[in-house]
Amino acid sequence: MKIFCGRANPTTGEMEWLEEDEDYDYHQEIARSRYADMLHDKDRNVKYYQGIRAAVSRVKERGEKAIVLDIGTGTGLLSMMAASAGADFCYAIEVFKPMAKAAVKIVEKNGFADKIKVISKHSTEVTVGPDGDMECRANILVTELFDTELIGEGALPTYEHAHKYLVQEGCEAVPHRATVYAQLVESKRMWSWNKLFPIHVEAEDGEKIIVPPSEMENCPGVPSVCDVQLNQMPSSDFTALSDVVTMFSVDFSKPVQSASTCYRVQLEPVQSGKAQIVLSWWDIDMDPSGMIKCSMAPHWVKPSAALQWRDHWMQCVYFLPNEEPVLQGEKVFLTACRDEYSVWYKLQKTSEEDNKADVGVESPVCRCHAHLLWNRPRFGELNDQNRTQQYIKALRKVVSTDTVCLCVSDGSLLPVLAHCLGAKQVQYFILVSDLCNLFKANHLEDKIKVIEARPELLKASHFKDEKVSVLMGEPFFSTSLLPWHNLYFWYARTAVTSHLSSNVTVLPQAASLHMMIVEFQDLWRIRSPCGICEGFDVQTMDDMIKDSLNFRESKEAEPHPLWEYPCKSLSDPLEVLTFDFRQTVPQHCLSTEGSVNLLRKGRSHGAVLWMEYHLDADVSISTGLMQISNEKGNCDWNPHCKQAVYFFSSVIESETLSDPGAVTYAINFDTKTGEIAMDFKL
Ligand code: SAH
């Protein structure tokens, strides 16, 4: 069977539907899955095992048979724990077919085939009865269906259904309970991910200020969760305005309701400031006593506790609809609202406003359009004053009153900057439009012309028969996944060549691809084999991930925002390819090979690749490495961008490397596809 997969084409900037083998999709899913990360999460595994043992003992003490329902069994791990703990029988439910197949193999290999029945279905399709999937209802309910937001993967409707149809009344549940915590903070950095700040432009005729559209003022933004590794957020980047408060709990051993609801908590700020952000995380109690707790709390909550690194569960950043000044000691009300799958917050000064729990539970919808145009890192990038100043510096040199500008970039403010700096005509070609509100707020609707046509379809009439004297881009395109996908700017530049004047300035004039070999503090876990997990052999899972990574023998780099994932440089950063935007895209491929010396001892987990844009001969912007901050090799990364990470498959061997050696590489940019292929040898 063939299926269609969506993929952005970096040579056209458009989404394309490619016909793929049925297997392709699931290989992608497995290769990039979080299963390895979960299996490496020792704290989680140990506590589940303790909780499961305790639940099985309680049932046995009552003289009952222990019948377990494990919803979302994955590798079968939690069912094998239950069987080892003495459960009489386990029903292991898994909706993802390739995983269910793997679970059957793993269960068999570990000798539990007679105790565990793997059912390859969604739990809501499971039947109970003499001819059903399950002979009878279970009396122990085990699940691990949580995401960073707790409920984003549908845990609530799944529990609601399970209590109605699949488990006995008064059953044991592991985990027994989940609790969601919140802390009110002020943070310019995080607030800059959600609102556009005014931009100051120093022009010849005085200072000009670009203002955000008024619609943005009270816009609640989008409901998608903002999950980050909060432990990597420097404490200087936010101020706690409240203590940590408990927002709500869910008891999984009782019937669960998934219908929308709100939870209101009164709190007294411990400090005056601007309430902007709610930081949130949860913990799960594996048993009713609360003695076996698995917590996602960031380091400042319990500084003495050992932190377990994990990427499958992080912390959440919620944005209040508008910033609210609060005074130390003055009571305020924080409300968490949720529907079946997501949570959002609001802050009120009095308890009168919508007192009823069911009022105002609609999830946030962006009304200003900006939150649909810019995602959170992009907001952060546009609000980065330093970066904007670099563009202004470069633009100021080339923009004058007779400049005809063309901008090629998604949701870019460069046309506004160029206009402020005095350009005669500013044309704006965009793939994703809708900057209209911002143009209106700045009285620019007649000044900046938006051309909604593909670059190859531009006509001389678009430019009033003049030639473009400045072609500019950030470059940034919202369909880009990997750093080099923004090279679409080069393809667009090639397509508009006939409209460019002979002495056109292309800004940026060039880009370069950079590479560095790194040792990750933790990120390596997500792609590293697990072998034995709590005494169970899960190598079948490792092999399956390896097969998926090798599917079509094309290991790929993957995007990660490295400011969240500390690493140490083992080599100097190296410029490996350059792309001259003053010329058109060549017909032939651009390739390079060589070797890079390892300067520091350490485990070579992979190569990091990023782009640097050379706005002109003097001004460059890095989307990757900002600096190596000390002699240990710790790296600072651009906080707004994802870098490309290529994980080496032979990490283990390099671990035993006593003498730093060298890594050879071969990198090829295929100008036909816009993709970069790479190969490394340690
Ligand atoms: N229990 C495993 C895996 C947890 S990941 C472990 O703890 O290591 C969650 C798994 O649940 C995924 O494999 C997902 O496909 C599956 N899943 C989620 N909701 C489900 C549902 N309602 N019915 C069946 N499987 C589900």
From TrEMBL:
Its EC number is 2.1.1.321. It catalyses: L-arginyl-[protein] + S-adenosyl-L-methionine = N(omega)-methyl-L-arginyl-[protein] + S-adenosyl-L-homocysteine + H(+). It is found in: Cytoplasm; Nucleus. GO terms for molecular function: histone methyltransferase activity; protein-arginine omega-N monomethyltransferase activity. It comes from the Eukaryota. One of its GO terms (cellular component) is nucleus. Keywords: Chromatin regulator, Cytoplasm, Differentiation, Methyltransferase, Nucleus, Repeat, S-adenosyl-L-methionine, Transcription, Transcription regulation, Transferase. PROSITE patterns: SAM_MT_PRMT. Residues 176-348, 510-671 form the Protein arginine N-methyltransferase domain. Signal peptide: none annotated. GO terms for biological process: cell differentiation; methylation. The keyword Kinase does not apply. Arginine methyltransferase that can both catalyze the formation of omega-N monomethylarginine (MMA) and symmetrical dimethylarginine (sDMA), with a preference for the formation of MMA. Specifically mediates the symmetrical dimethylation of arginine residues in the small nuclear ribonucleoproteins Sm D1 (SNRPD1) and Sm D3 (SNRPD3); such methylation being required for the assembly and biogenesis of snRNP core particles. Specifically mediates the symmetric dimethylation of histone H4 'Arg-3' to form H4R3me2s. This is Protein arginine N-methyltransferase 7. The lineage of its organism: Eukaryota, Metazoa, Chordata, Craniata, Vertebrata. The gene is Prmt7.
